[in-house]
Structure formats: C-alpha cells, structure tokens
C-alpha cells in the first residue's frame, strides 16, 4: 500500500449520512427485495469499512466484494453482516474464505470440489451462491456446464446452495438491442432456476440486478439486488436516470467529494505557457493557482485536453496547463484567489457541483472508473454520524 498524503492539503471527503440516505432510498425503491451493497474496490473508492457500516445502517441486508482479502478486511473492521464473494475463490484461498465466514460464488465443478474440501477443514456447513453465465461471458457456469456443477453439489453435507445469480451486461443502455438482450438474459436466468429445481436445488436468494437493472427493470429484482454505484449517489448515465424517474423520484446524494487547498498563486503575462510542454498560451494577463493533486492521485492528464474545470469560491476555472504527477495549475483570471482557498475538484461548492458523470464525459469513460481512480495518496475524511458497532447477522433476510 502506498503512503497516504496526510502532509499535503488534498483529501477525499465521504459523507456517511449520504450513504445511509442512499441505502434507505434504494430499499424503498426495491420493496420486498433484499439489498446487497457492493463495497469492492475499497467501497468504490469511498473506504470499505466505514462505507459498509454506514450502508448497513441505512438498510442494506448484506455486502458483496470481489476478493477474499476484501472480505477479510471487512471482518477485521468489525463487519458482521453476510458478505458475498462475487468471483469463485482460488483453491488456495477457499479455506480462508470460509474461516472469515464469507459466502463464495461457485461457477465450476473444480470450485465446488475445492469448497467441499475447505468446508471439511473448517468443520462447518457453509452457504454458497452459484453464478450462471447468461450472456456476459466473463464469469459464471456456462449453460452446458451448469448441470454438472449442480450434480457436484449433490450428496454432500458441507455446502448449502443459498443463492443463484447472474449479471446483466447492458442494463444501463436503453437502445432497442440492449433492451432486448437484457430480456434475453432474464429469460435465460429463469431457465437456470428451472434447471436447478430439477436437480433438487432451491436457492432462497435469487439475484440478477445491478444498480441500473434494479432502477430500470422491475422484473430483474427477484429476491435480492446487488447495488453499487447508486448507493454512492451516482447513476451510470443520463438514460438510466431518466428511466428510473419514470417510476418515481429517486433521492440519491453523491457521497464523495475531492477537495484541496491552493498552495501557490502567481501573476503571469498574456502569452505565458504554464506547466510541462507549454501547451497552452494564457489568453490574457492574470493569475494561476497551484493545487496539490495530479495524475498519480487519479486526476488524469487528459482532463487538460478536455478543458476540465475546478471550483474555487463557487466559480469554475479551467486548467492553465498540463496535469503533472502531483499538481495542477488553474487559470483564475483576475479573480482574487489566495493560498489556503478551498478547491472542489469533485462535488459541490457554492451553488455549483462537479459530478462524477462530468468527469466521465471528459475522460470518455464511466463514473465507476472515476470514483475508483483516487488512490491511497489521498486520505479519506469522513463527515456525518460515525457508524455504531455492528450486530451479528449471517442471513440475507432480517426475520429470525
């Protein structure tokens, strides 16, 4: 892990109350479906343990991560709710997964065999989920292999098939081909449920929908949804936002802000070319402000070419030159800006807000990548009510 930059005035600010609000909003939208909060990749950059606890307090029924190590981090941080592993663990890490009371996803016969052996070592009866591939072709049991996975689970007492799931690949796209393909995936999942039942497997938890799916396709919600981006206050794109609001207003609040302080201000003449490469001439005499964040922190160089802006004093100002590894320079014109003034690189300041989707548009990417891109050199600061100690709960539903 790289060193955090506590010695410089740049930080990620995470609003824990916003996370709770978002979880409550999604629970209200989902009705009877359980809410699985996806907190992989350090809670989408927000900090895994504080974010997980806040989302659980807001109503999430359990959590999902990608790596065994991510699940262990949550357990060591005091999280006691169910934690689903979204990928099949390696044979070597299966025992560690069960020891940490994580719920593995299984997709292969080899994975089932490894899970049975690991459960024997631990000496407990463990829940597992099975993932089927309905068309994304990344992970999951292929249709021809699915019956063999089910058969490998028969006649043993170590594993209980608690869940069956798949993943939607284009639920955030609203053109006709994508809508049709999403419906095809749902039909293929229904068929997988039928095949599982023919093999005597009756999972209590069925889950298909991600954030986009849960917001746009009511028939994708099943008994649980896996929600990531929406819980952090963002939606994948404007199409999803528009479609989601057709059902009812959606009250989501972005939880992450990126803030810094001006560390230097200097007057420059018209025609001067700040930063590496001298790539853009100052159109007028004025001031440039130095801000301590750079591409090593997740502020990409391509934002300069995209004419990206930052907020200082509630006003937008463009970059004056190339993004460097540790710093940017901002053209503040003739506005009086001083060392120590706060800079909003992501989030609200005054009456304006720079959003993750704005970043994504400038970078020709998606908001997920933006939020996950801020590294360990930027420390996380938490505002709002701090989480309380977690009560132990091992099941995805709340009734005893």
Automatic annotation (TrEMBL):
Entry's Gene Ontology BP terms: D-alanine biosynthetic process
Isomerase as UniProt keyword: yes
- Spell out the GO cellular component terms annotated for this protein, sorted alphabetically and separated by semicolons: cytosol
**What InterPro entries does the database record attribute to this sequence?**
Ala_racemase, Ala_racemase/Decarboxylase_C, Ala_racemase_C, Ala_racemase_N, Ala_racemase_pyridoxalP-BS, PLP-binding_barrel
Q: Which SUPFAM superfamilies match?
A: Alanine racemase C-terminal domain-like (SSF50621), PLP-binding barrel (SSF51419)
* A Pfam short name: Ala_racemase_C
Print the keywords alphabetically.
Answer: Isomerase, Pyridoxal phosphate
List the Gene3D superfamilies hit by this protein, alphabetically: Alanine racemase, Lyase, Ornithine Decarboxylase, Chain A, domain 1
Listed GO MF terms: alanine racemase activity; pyridoxal phosphate binding
In this chain the Alanine racemase C-terminal domain maps to 255-383
> Is the keyword Isomerase in the record?
yes
Cofactor(s) the protein needs: pyridoxal 5'-phosphate
PANTHER family, A to Z: ALANINE RACEMASE, ALANINE RACEMASE, CATABOLIC-RELATED
Q: HAMAP family, per this entry? A: Ala_racemase
User: Could you identify this protein by its name?
Assistant: Unannotated protein
């Amino acid at each position: 892990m790289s060193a955090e930059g506590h010695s410089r005035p740049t930080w990620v600010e995470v609003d824990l109350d916003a996370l709770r609000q978002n979880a409550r909003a999604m629970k209200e939208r989902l009705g009877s479906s359980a809410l699985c909060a996806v907190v992989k990749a350090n809670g989408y950059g927000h900090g895994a343990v504080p974010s997980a606890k806040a989302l659980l307090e807001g109503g999430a029924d359990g959590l999902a991560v990608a790596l065994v190590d991510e699940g262990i981090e949550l357990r060591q941080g005091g999280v006691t709710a169910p934690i689903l592993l979204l990928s099949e663990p390696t044979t070597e890490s299966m025992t560690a997964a069960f020891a940490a009371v994580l719920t593995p996803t299984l997709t292969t016969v080899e994975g089932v065999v490894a899970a049975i052996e690991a459960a024997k070592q631990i000496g407990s009866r463990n829940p597992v989920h099975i993932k089927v591939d309905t068309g994304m072709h990344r992970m999951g049991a292929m249709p021809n292999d699915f019956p063999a996975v089910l058969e490998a689970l028969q006649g043993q007492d170590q594993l209980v098939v608690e869940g069956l799931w798949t993943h939607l690949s284009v639920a955030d796209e609203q053109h006709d081909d994508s809508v049709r393909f999403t419906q095809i995936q749902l039909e293929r999942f229904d068929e997988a449920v039928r095949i599982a039942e023919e093999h005597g497997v009756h999972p209590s938890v069925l889950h298909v929908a991600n954030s986009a799916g849960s917001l746009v396709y009511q028939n994708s919600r099943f008994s649980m949804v896996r929600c990531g981006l929406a819980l952090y206050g963002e939606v994948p794109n404007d199409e999803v936002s528009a479609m989601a609001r057709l059902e009812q207003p959606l009250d989501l609040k972005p939880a992450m802000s990126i803030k810094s302080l001006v560390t230097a201000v200097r007057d420059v003449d018209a025609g001067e070319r700040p930063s590496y490469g001298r790539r853009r001439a100052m159109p007028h005499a004025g001031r440039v402000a130095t801000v301590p964040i750079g591409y090593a922190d997740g502020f990409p160089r391509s934002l300069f070419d995209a004419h990206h802006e930052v907020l200082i004093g509630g006003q937008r100002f463009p970059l004056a030159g190339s993004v460097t590894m540790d710093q940017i320079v901002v053209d503040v014109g003739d506005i009086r800006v001083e060392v120590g003034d706060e800079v909003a690189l992501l989030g609200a300041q005054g009456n304006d807000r720079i959003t993750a989707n704005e970043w994504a548009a400038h970078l020709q990417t998606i908001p997920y990548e933006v939020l996950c891109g801020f590294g360990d050199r930027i420390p996380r600061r938490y505002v709002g009510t701090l989480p309380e100690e977690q009560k132990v709960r091992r099941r995805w539903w709340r009734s005893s």
